[in-house]
Amino acid sequence: MFGEKGGIVLIYFALLAGVAILYLFFIFPTQWLKLETVKQPLGINKTILQISDLHFDRLRVPASRIKKVIKESNPDYIFLTGDFTYKERYLSRAAHYFKAFADYGVPIYAVLGNHDYELPQLRKLLRLFEHYGIKLLRNESVFVEDFQLVGIDDYGTGHSKINKSFQDVNQSKPIVIITHDPNVVLKIKRPYAYLMAGHLHGKQLNVPFFFTFKPKGPLSAKGIYKGLHSDENGFYYISKGIGQAGVNARFMVRSEITLHQL
Hints:
Layout: H1 3-31, E1 34-39, E2 47-51, H2 63-73, E3 77-81, H3 91-102, E4 108-111, H4 122-131, E5 134-136, E6 140-144, E7 147-151, H5 162-165, E8 175-178, E9 194-197, H6 210-213, H7 218-221, E10 227-230, E11 235-238, E12 256-261
Helix pairs in contact: 2-3, 3-4
């Protein structure tokens, strides 16, 4: 009916349509950044911008876009909740983004994630934090104006030391925790006001039984892998993250930066 040339044209357009669908459903969500806003009044009266799971080796959101979000959201603090890269050749890219964050001029705090501990020379990443004025918390706490900030190192790789993280903390001010792997909340046996984590990417690929085939700990097994939750100790938020791990795609899950109004 269409002839040989017509058949080739149909195949060509079918291939184009297939590529377009793949891009729309799997690649575009990695570029279509969403600013999530969470209101959890703790009496701190501060806004905190959480950027999690940057995965510089997979990140498709340009630094200029993140810089625009920082300017528009006008946070008091920026918290980076782990997983920067596991490949040294992307540290120069990390430096480019860190500079964009630091240029805004607000305090920045960070914790490490499981991928960071795969870096052959972790000290090179640590030097970048120091160079750009990013305070890395490794099982320690600091007093910051109206609250106490606790940074718990990565739980999944066995680097978290909860008791050490809290050794200088008291109940005089609200306790805010940053960490990478949210499963650590099941091991914290003391009250806190708020905790921010990442690691689970909101599934990244929103398909049934995802965590059955890719286990990520007891929280995800119970269906807890994104958003705001609480237990007997406090409230905790799991970011969907901004970058990707493994396959560089997302399905029905957009890249996220989170503004916490506390």
